[in-house]
Amino acid sequence: MYGYVLHGWPPAVGKEYNAYFRRKENICFDQGCLLWGYIIIIPRTLQNAILKEIHDGHPGIVKMKQIARNYVWWATIDADIERAVRDCGACLAVRPEPPPAPLHSWPWPVEPWSRLHVDYLGPFNNKYYLVSSTSAANLISILRKIFARFGLPKRIISDNGPLFTSAEVATYFQGNGIGHTLTAPYHPASNGAAENAVRSVKRALKKASLGNEDEDTALNRFLFSYRNTEHSTTGRDPSVALLGRRLRGRLSLLRRDTDERIRDRIIASELRRDAPLRVVAPGDSVLIRDYSRRNRKWAEGVVLDRSSPVSYSVKTSDGQIHKRHVDQIMCDKNRKSRFSLTKIEACDRPRLSVKAEDGSEAREPREMDELANRSSPEKSPSSSTDQTSPVAPVDHVRRQAAEQCLQKK
Ligand SMILES: [Zn+2]
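The line above is the sequence of RNA-directed DNA polymerase; the predicted structure tokens follow.
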């Protein structure tokens, strides 16, 4: 396959490549992966691992195919998914699916999260879901947590359960401007949306208990896959409908996102650009900011290595290793005496600038003070130091950016 894609397809291929051959116009090679459009083509050796990942939470054949369609493809994927479900004891045990409760035709909500259908599940294995104890206070506390994340809905639809009809819950809804509709007694289908959700969750929990999985983990895995796959009624992923984006899952790792690629490039270019500025190197004696509660601001140490463009590991004289940003480090060699440490903060800021051209002692970088002065209107801006300052060009650019920022304010 790699050969065909990189060096051109022959006029005809073996049977096992036919499905790929038909798509050859849209198959390309990117960062070591074969892509069909935006979908990754999974090589045979990894197909089982991917199947296992898609099967996570036992979403069933239909959902598994939907999940797969968003991320991965190979010629026999549909058949493989069907086989995986057929071979799964937990999936098999809870089939066939009961017919869904018919949905009472509630008007289609215009905004997300405006009408919520609420129901509780249980007891299932002696546990209630949504409520951990059947008290109104507990129900309110759980709803409050949900609303803190997503906001108050305009209306809540629930059945006539004693919790939902309690005065406490009524007061809570009223106080928060939430309308409450109780569905007709003995007619659970009026709250069909919630009933169906409860039924799906129950099925997931049953599968979990059959597979000896932890119920909480199974529930959350099920919810994750439920929220991230197309809903049969709305045709949209619940996460997209509510949050406007698909949730990042493990399958997302298959696709290296563009942001990350751009970030990597920026870091690489900063590394190149900033290279001359880095004044400390492994083995240098330095002073680093001391955050222990001893009464001193700086501690002596030796640079061990650089872990990122701006951070270093430094070993202090007591043998401890500290991580420091380059702004928290200064060169030790120009220190006048061992006992000037306490004055350093005032007169000798961490230096990013290099030594003056004449080789004399490095001058005090004053950019920060100058900037601070400029932000206060009563002091006139001094321009004299700008042109003569021996700071490296990058500092100059940074300073300009900072100045522009201050002007905007
Ligand atoms: Zn299964």
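Note on the example: Residues 336-393 have pLDDT under 50 and may be disordered. Residues 192-210 form the longest helix (19 residues).
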